[in-house]
Each structure stands twice: as structure tokens, then as C-alpha cells.
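This section describes the prediction task in plain terms. A model, or a person checking by hand, is given the sequence of a single protein chain and must write out its three-dimensional structure as a string of C-alpha cells. No templates, partner chains or ligands are provided. The sample shown here is typical of the held-out split.
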Amino acid sequence: MQGSNLYVGNLDYGITSSQLEEMFSKYGEVKEAKVIEGKGFGFVEMTDTDGAEKAQEALNGTDLEGRTIKVDEARPRRENSNRGGDRGGGGYRGGQRGGGGYSRY
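The expected answer:
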């Protein structure tokens, strides 16, 4: 493992960030724990890679609130060139197709 950031998947939607922090703190100091609300996953950042490795080994595949959780090293966020920018034509707009104001129909 190269980093101390962990992805935690298959969480019950009722799990809170503080519950996640409490669970992972048994394996080392937790810098931050964050559940992504309504998505069923979250992230835990440990202060060192040793604690992250111990937590991953101990918690991956365990039961939490009736669900088998997945703990893995978090991947860095990818930059998306389309985010927030013009995505070109397409779609349906104003009774015409293509988004460009012209219609073949």
C-alpha cells in the first residue's frame, strides 16, 4: 500500500462519518473519515500507511450493520475535461433535436 487513504464501500446508508472514524481508530490515528451521503461509500484518511494497512486487512470483508464492507486503497480523483464545460450539441431542446437549433425532421 502506498498511501493512507482508504475507500470503504457497500456501507449501509445509515452509517455516519463518526461511526466510520470510531471503527477505523482501533487500527491507528484517523485524520478524517467521511461518508458520502446517499451513496453507500466513504473515505477514511489515516495518519500513516501502517495504520491504513492494518485497518484494510482487518476490516475488508467484515460485516457492518448487516452488510459486507469493502475496504481498499483509495485512488486519486481523475480530472474530467468535460466537467463544468460545454459538452457540445445533442439532446433535445425547444422542440428541436440536436441542440444546435437545426432539425432534420
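For orientation: The chain has two helices and eight strands.
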